[in-house]
Amino acid sequence: MARLENFDTDELALLASLNFDRLAEPDKVDYLLLKNRVTSDLHRLAIQKKQTEEAELLLPFCETIESLLEDKRLMKRPDGEKAAAELATMAKRITAKENELDPRKHGKRAQPEPGTAQG
């Protein structure tokens, strides 16, 4: 995500360095369309980043998954031992987060869902 942000920021800087007034009409249209697209992409990335940060509170293992997927996307040769250790640690963190969020573990009764019969 950071790489995309850097790319888009660099593209906006490159566009800003152009003399818009000296461009031909079709180039001005392309300039405005590209600037709009890059600005929109940056906005979308900011929203996605915020959503990821909020999800990380509940999914502390998210970074491990993202790292493994990024390595796969970049076609890096996998390190089996490292990946296995990361997955084992992730499984422990999942269990810990489940226990932390389970109301039964904290002496609280689970609340029935609205519209269901209580018995």
Task: Describe the model.
The protein is mainly α and 119 residues long. It has two domains: 1-58; 60-102. It is built from four helices and no strands. It has helices at residues 2-17, 25-58, 62-73, 80-101. α1 packs antiparallel against α2.
Q: How would you describe this structure in keywords?
A:
119 residues, 71% helix, mainly alpha
Shape: elongated
Order of helices and strands: HHHH
The structural class is: mainly alpha
- Domain count: 2
Ends: how far apart? 49 Å
Regions with pLDDT < 50 over 5+ consecutive residues?
none
The biggest beta sheet, please? none
Integer-rounded radius of gyration: 23 Å
Mean pLDDT: 86
Total DSSP E strands: 0
Approximately how much helix is present in the residues?
over 70%
State the helix count: 4
Percent strand: under 5%
Short précis:
This protein is mainly alpha-helical and 119 residues long. It has helices at 2-17, 25-58, 62-73, 80-101.
